[in-house]
Amino acid sequence: MFRSIEDLETALSEPTPGVLGTLAAWPGDLVILGVAGKMGLTLARMARRAFDQLGRRDRVIGVARFSSPACAANLQAHGVETIPCDLLDRASLQHLPDVPNVIFMAGHKFGSSTTPDYTWASNTLIPTLAAEKFGRARLVAFSTGCVYPLVSVQSGGSREEDELGPPGDYANSCVGRERLLTFFSRRHGLPLALFRLNYAVEMRYGVLLDVASKVWRGEPVDVTMGQANVIWQRDANALALQCLAHAASPPFVLNVTGPETLSIRELAARFGRLLGRAPQVTGTEAPTAWLNNASKAHCLFGLPTATADQLIEWTADWVMHGGAVLGKPTHFEARDGKF
Q1: Could you tell me which CATH number the domain at 5-201+232-260+291-304 has?
Q2: pTM for this model (two decimals)
Q3: What is the pLDDT of residues 112-135, one digit of tens each?
Q4: For the chain, which residues make up each domain, given as ranges?
């Protein structure tokens, strides 16, 4: 269990043996574009800790606008260099250092239904500019499991070779991001890995926290989107760094999530028992959901280090003890792609 934010972030940024092996085999500085998001801080710290454990002096450089000075200060305190940059500005991006390894995390989701123009610019123009700048690097680009259409809950989830075709501006702009990066990969030989994540969770954010918080507050839990996949953020961080070794042209594509398909109704009931609250459930499960099959990732890298049962218990404990949250609901219930 976790009793402080520092304990939590230390756990989220602990390098796995796979990360140590990858960074030992693929030397060089690492730039993380869009580092100021929910996952970037702990991913950057994981890379820095891995280099330190390996006795390597390679730089880890976090790039973002850094509208919050505390974010940059947090990274710097843990040995991560920071460079403020508006990634939509080609000239500013071109001034970034040339490095052999890049993790691309920039993007825009929440508010996409009210500002679709900004969403498309963020999710298609920024990756285009990044591919121009880092055309000789190995690039791991974060994507989303929402690039697939909703599938039958009996299907076992979408696989990497399935056709894309999601609803909504956000998910379609993410397809656009993949298509443009794939173009650069095929045309110019850019080694690329497309990292289709669905959904990373930690104690302060994610589907599990959303459900647990509603149960704790006595609010109804909508089960229309009746199933979901999740993965511990530490495991997602580790897989992103390990994908540097698999970046290729044409692109390497990977679904990233846990092996379990979780029922939202059963999650509400489980949290009700753990939290001592009677869950309120509304809606009826639809026959489809956004589900991904990550068996390819599990075969390549092994199962996640944290099981769904552990994550549920950790989340309930965090909620009961009044742990800090990011205040950013996932809106996992949305079926129309409007976030």
Answers
A1: 3.40.50.720
A2: 0.96
A3: 678 889 999 999 999 999 999 999
A4: 5-201+232-260+291-304
